[in-house]
Amino acid sequence: MFCPVCEAEYEKGIERCPDHDVELVEELSPETSRDRSEARFVPLHNIGSPAEAEMVSDILTQNGIRAAVQSGGSDAFSPLLSTTSPGALVLVDERDFDRAQELYNSFFGSDTTPLTGTTLEEDDEIASDDDDDADDDDTDDGTSERR
User: What pTM did the predictor assign?
Assistant: First the structure.
């Protein structure tokens, strides 16, 4: 018996995949088996930190999208352990790009720092926009209008 989602094999007598809560199938067919052909990866987003990029990659992978992270670290542990390293690029299979973009947008919108929030420059820009909005609320006689 096989899980059609994760393709794990189970002993006879087990009827559901405990990880995905789906009914097992006798054998994997082309309809239930994942595509294992070579992927051509294209950039989805440049994310604020390698750890955040790994999180995004995990979300995409859990939703059946082939994803990888490319960062500037000099060794295999740099992307995961460094909090000071620059951002990382999330790559997805070009065949999954539209679905990956839709999924990313549904989780994060245009946010490129999903865990840490905005950068200092973005905070300054938001504060500047808020000040401009406050100036727009002033009336001609110098009093503030409440909305």
Answer: 0.49
